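Entry 14. Two folds queued back to back today. First construct below, sequence then structure tokens.
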Amino acid sequence: MTITRKQPAAGYLKIAHRGASAHEPENTLRAFRRALELGADAIELDVHVSKDGELVVIHDAYVDKTTDGTGAVAEMASNELRRLDAGEGEPIPTLAEVIDGFAREAVLCIELKGEGSAIPTADLVRGKRCVDRVILCSFDAAKVRRVKEHAPEIETSVLTGSWEEDFLLLAREAKADCIHFCWERHPQPHTLLTDDVMRRAHEAGLEVVLWHEERPDEIRELIRKPIYGICSNNPELL
């Protein structure tokens, strides 16, 4: 089954990492709205599963870091999670809320974090009829593969932070459509994105995404490459 590749106006996706997370509380509706105001045409967000099976948007498996609560997301019911303050009075959004509010305006790069999140997320995307506006991704190749085998029409991506890993093997294992290089800890990621890497990726049918970059000089170098997208906490830099 054929996937729908995205067609960004700038030639590459300007992806707001957890929304405009340098400016607003990450993974909140407020951060997603600000991202669009700052020129993003794609939004990255993270998904876990609550105790009662709700898909909720939060980065960590525990609420302690980004809310005023404490405990594991998977051990809390959705109504408990909704009562927490995720910053500036913002609640933890549900994935359904984010899709309803933003899928028509932006591509949603949904990172599968929680256990058991892959199939329910794919089913929600199908049910909301926004397959052409979504990329499902994960560091966990098994989650990506599970999505692709269950819903082959959904575009997928596998993430890696290594610059030594065989990325083609990783992508094959995940049955991914894109490779996300998470090289923000490298001093000059553009030097890793050689013509040979780009050629091998494209010959394998993979689009290339860079994740995430906050250095303006480095961004200028990266967007000279034939990349699919670049992610930043500061979408205005893109």
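Second construct, same run, same settings:
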Amino acid sequence: MTRSKWLQFILDQMIWFILILVVIFFTVRTGGKFLSGVTLINVLLHASVLGVLTIGQTICLLSGNFDLSAEGIVSLLTVLAAWLMLPYREMTLAQAGGIGWELSPFIVIPIMLILGTLIGWINGMLITRLRMNNFIVTLAMQLFLRGIAYVISLGAIMPGTPKEFNWLGGGRIGAIPVSVVVTLLLFLVFEFFVRYTRFGRELYAVGANRDAARASGFKPERTITQAYMIGGFMAGLASWMLLGRLEVSTPTLGQGMTLETVASAVIGGVALSGGAGSIVGAFSGVLLLSVVDTGLNIMEVDPFWITGVRGLIILVALLLEVQKSRIRVGTVPGRAKSPIAQS
């Protein structure tokens, strides 16, 4: 193996080395408390909702697009689900009830997933058919959806979701939360899906060079729309998971998670320019952010420092991405070679 290939391998796997070092650091500083079973479960539990959203964000990033609407979808769907399931009660300044329909969770859950997918389809159509900017479209969609959530709830919380609904977010298989098991399975399934299916090849090709992908017989508009539909579906699933865990709906749920999903993907080696990265890489970014948050909380560090540390981690990730681009032959700065180009 040549020197450049060794450097490329080291840089590609650097995120895992950093993750191991961070775990060792927190283990030493907390006197071994960080490696307790409860703490490790909490790390994975914290990573579950973020991880599901990050999968959807990664799919969109691989196609060369952003999806800033995910947190708006979470805000709307969590409020809508509670509104449809909860009994009617007189609204107070702090709490609100549902519309009074008291729909079964087995009806509400499919509504959430279908509506999330539909919102993703609308994003994709606006971007591909009307040639609107993906950043502006999804940002406007986020604001629009959160506005509807506030209209429905009037800013009040809606507590008391049914036990059948709460299974995904609050259920356990033995000592392991259901949400952790589902999230890990989703990462494995989507890693296989992106790596070894035709859609995955189209996704990398479109993200790397849309014109070249079209010349190769792919349909970039269809692929991008499908990517946004997957992102919307994953946001719907994350909404179910988050509301099931908290058992309380509020229009602020999901707020700020968009930047976390982008950060997790970038930390894990997904190129902002598209066409490079992996689902497993994004998972490493989710784990790193979750480990940092949990470790600093155990150490009782000022919460404001957590934001600063996150920003530093993202800057280091971007620095590593630039270095990987420099040692690859035939790539431009900021874009890593996709599996298609490597094969």
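Quick look at the second one. The mean pLDDT is 88. DSSP finds 15 helices and four strands in the chain.
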